[in-house]
TrEMBL record:
Compartment(s) where it occurs, according to its Swiss-Prot or TrEMBL record: Cell membrane
GO molecular function: transmembrane transporter activity
Taxonomic path: Bacteria, Bacillati, Bacillota, Bacilli, Bacillales
UniProt protein name: MFS transporter
Topology of this chain in the membrane: Multi-pass membrane protein
Length: 433
């Protein structure tokens, strides 16, 4: 009887989680679009825009490990709600400032800085809580719902933002963001973050120093070689995929001379691909061999980066270029989710609850830390080297990293059942692997 009640509560969590994440992510994307357009409209400076981007990345890189440590020490629900509440107060402060004075660039930078801090703490605490909110059989569905909300907001945010920008004041952008986070706060306040906890009591001791706790997280990683390999692969993955995020617009605009009106459709194709695969994961049974599944997707992702060079080597008509990159970016979005979702489910299940916050904090730090470095490196390289050389190098690097870091022997050691039937290794990607 108790288990039935818990399952019902987990179902409530699953859909409340989907709705709250979708509402807050949509509000955040609308806000991000409005702020970006506002900065460009009043300054006309790419540097001012880049500075705001820096203020949204640096605090996340620096504070992610600290957020992870705190998520393992204090009740995660408290941390999530305090982070959400801090976000509401931060944006409300900018709204109040705009009503009393004109919005300034400095005020936007300060808001972005504190906004990022609050979202970092609430985001990592929530990520570390997913396995406590739903039963193990539905962790994959929860992770796919998380990706679904990101995809929908990624598609809808710019559309809603574009419709609003020019018709309503900046204050309305701020109000929409505040309202979305208030709704998310109220929904998340109703959730039981200890429903499927394995700990008798939430750890609250602060006797151990932050540095000791951080070191203990790395020591724990040494006892989980598979998780450690996943983190290393994630590190290199984010570095080499920066070649796509930095280079795609440069290639389309400067090299292939694609019309600006069509670039938005090409970029949207990636978000649609992510949405499509998120729905697929939400509907299908749990992936039986997640590391093998993700390895295949990552291998195909490496090949796809190389495939992007074909229109740079051979002549394509303008319409063929548009259709080709629509398909490529749709596939890119699909493969990104196919790679990430099984890995994240695996981490939710395999990482001990008492270390989950620190591990997700380290993952966030490693993933975000290389983004500005990758953007800087490839931003320089695209100015001095042919784009096809850069993409082919990154493609080969991704394939080699996949094969070396996740060898067949490692997969066989994790999934001994595969030894009994090696023919399963030849199954297509979308089989129940």
């Amino acid at each position: 009887m108790v288990e039935i009640v818990k399952k019902r509560r987990a179902t409530y969590h699953l859909y409340t989680f989907l709705f709250s994440k979708m509402i807050s992510a949509l509000g955040a994307n609308v806000y991000s679009f409005g702020i970006s357009m506002y900065i460009l409209s009043i300054t006309g400076s790419a540097l001012s825009f880049a500075a705001n981007l820096i203020f949204s990345i640096i605090p996340r890189v620096i504070l992610s490990p600290i957020a992870g440590i705190l998520a393992d020490r204090i009740p995660k629900k408290v941390m999530v709600l305090v982070g959400q509440g801090g976000t509401v107060l931060t944006i409300s402060g900018l709204l109040l400032y705009s009503l009393l004075f004109d919005i300034s660039i400095v005020a936007i930078y300060i808001t972005t800085f504190f906004y990022t801090i609050c979202s970092t703490f609430s985001g990592i605490a929530f990520s570390a809580s997913i396995a406590n909110l739903v039963d193990e059989e539905r962790i994959q569905k929860a992770m796919s719902f998380n990706q679904l909300s990101i995809s929908v907001s990624g598609i809808g945010g710019p559309i809603v933002g574009g419709m609003l920008f020019g018709f309503v004041s900046m204050e309305w952008f701020l109000f929409i963001n505040i309202l979305s986070y208030i709704i998310a706060f109220l929904l998340e306040a109703t959730m039981n973050f200890k429903l499927y906890t394995n700990q008798l009591e939430e750890p609250t001791s602060i006797e151990e120093s932050m540095l000791q706790s951080f070191k203990e997280g790395f020591t724990y990683l040494k006892t989980k070689p598979v998780i450690l390999r996943i983190l290393i692969v994630s590190l290199w993955l984010n570095l080499f995929l920066s070649s796509v995020s930095v280079g795609i617009n440069f290639i389309l605009v400067e090299i292939l001379k694609v019309e600006y009106s069509l670039i938005g459709f090409i970029e949207a194709a990636a978000a649609i691909g992510m949405l499509f695969i998120s729905l697929y994961f939400a509907a299908r049974t749990n992936v039986k061999y997640p590391l093998q599944f993700s390895k295949r997707a990552l291998f195909m992702l490496g090949i796809l980066v190389g495939v992007m060079t074909i229109p740079l080597i051979f002549h394509f008509s303008s319409s063929a270029i548009f259709i080709y990159f629509l398909a490529v970016m749709f596939s890119f979005g699909c493969l990104t989710v196919l790679t990430n979702t099984p890995i994240m489910v695996m981490m939710q299940k395999d990482v001990d609850e008492s270390y989950r916050g620190r591990i997700f904090g380290i993952l966030e730090m490693m993933a975000m830390g290389l983004m500005p470095i990758g953007s800087l490196i490839f931003g320089i390289l695209y100015d001095v080297l042919p784009a096809q050389i850069i993409l082919l190098f990154c493609s080969a690097s991704l394939i080699i990293i996949t094969l070396v870091a996740i060898p067949r022997s490692l997969i066989m050691s994790i999934y001994p059942n595969l030894k009994k039937n090696t023919s399963e290794l030849e199954q297509p990607l979308f089989k129940n692997t």
